[in-house]
Write a structure and sequence with these properties.
This protein is an all-beta fold. The protein is 0% helix and 50% strand. The protein has no helices and eleven strands. Strands 2, 4, 5, 6, 9, 10 and 11 form a seven-stranded mixed sheet that branches. The chain has a four-stranded antiparallel sheet with strand order 1-3-8-7, with no helix packed on it. 29% of the residues are buried.
């Protein structure tokens, strides 16, 4: 599948942003879609993931209660709603996909990646 992330930008502390990941290609095959982020000098970090049917959602510990992942019924777009943003949320955010129904937190287990979108939270 091919992925294209969008929606990043500059926001103040406590603000909100919504990211989108457009999915194209072999969409007839079930896959898990995840969001990861990478700040300068840090490892890529798991943010959230959603199963093909949308019935399973998973979050990194620091995102729980603030971020929500969802997908549209056509399974062509995955969204990441981010609320109560903090300066430590500043990073490049990537969407990724892996075939199947199992969710993994390791970025190396995802084989399709979008280009990344910058999120900057200013204090």
């Amino acid at each position: 599948v091919q992925l294209q992330a969008s929606g990043g930008g500059l926001v103040q502390v406590g603000g909100s942003l919504s990211l989108s990941c457009a999915v194209s290609g072999r969409t007839a095959v079930s896959y898990v879609t995840g969001w990861f982020r990478q700040a300068p000098g840090k490892a890529r970090e798991f943010v959230a993931a959603i199963t093909w049917g949308g019935d399973g959602t998973y979050y990194g510990d620091s995102m729980k209660g603030r971020f929500t992942i969802s997908r549209d019924n056509a399974k062509t777009t995955v969204y990441l709603q981010m609320n109560n943003l903090k300066p430590e949320d500043t990073a490049v955010y990537y969407c990724a996909a892996r075939q199947g129904d199992s969710v993994y937190y390791g970025s190396w287990l995802y084989d399709s990646w979008g280009q990344g979108t910058q999120v900057t939270v200013s204090s």
